[in-house]
Q: What sequence folds into this?
């Protein structure tokens, strides 16, 4: 019987991979089960979660209803021509590069269609709202900016 070179290496690799996988999968004491969808893996985590209850889920019903309005622009309405894509890209790059904008402001929707830019989403202040609009208006090729940004009062 002829031996194939590398077979021992392949077997060793397989054995080591299975050992690592088994070790990673052992995240709790033997015989314990998880109930009530508690994903805590360390006993202290259970106590910590009991002392810090989960905040109530956000209610975005009004915003979701608004976004279902057929007249409301969404990112799916982004113009597919090179000019519209370039305008959106340049606005996004400028917004993300700004050190003065919040993370919410950096994540606003920027939709360009027919060289008309629509800005949607939450920002932290009137200043952020104005700053993003100014960035959009400063990009060559922009015909008009429809600023629908909302100042988040939370």
A:
């Amino acid at each position: 019987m002829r031996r194939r070179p590398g077979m021992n290496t392949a077997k060793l690799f397989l054995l080591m991979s299975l050992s690592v996988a088994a070790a990673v999968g052992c995240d709790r004491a033997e015989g314990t089960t998880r109930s009530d969808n508690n994903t805590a893996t360390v006993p202290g985590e259970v106590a910590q979660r009991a002392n810090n209850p989960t905040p109530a889920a956000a209610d975005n019903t009004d915003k979701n209803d608004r976004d279902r309005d057929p007249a409301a622009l969404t990112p799916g309405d982004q113009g597919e021509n090179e000019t519209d894509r370039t305008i959106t890209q340049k606005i996004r790059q400028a917004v993300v590069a700004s050190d003065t904008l919040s993370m919410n402001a950096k994540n606003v929707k920027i939709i360009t269609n027919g060289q008309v830019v629509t800005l949607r989403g939450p920002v932290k202040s009137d200043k952020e709202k104005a700053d993003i609009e100014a960035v959009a208006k400063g990009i060559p090729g922009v015909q008009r900016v429809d600023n629908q940004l909302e100042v988040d009062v939370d």
The radius of gyration is 26 Å. The CA atoms of residues 8 and 14 lie 10 Å apart. The helical segments are 7-25, 43-51, 61-68, 82-97, 103-106, 126-137.
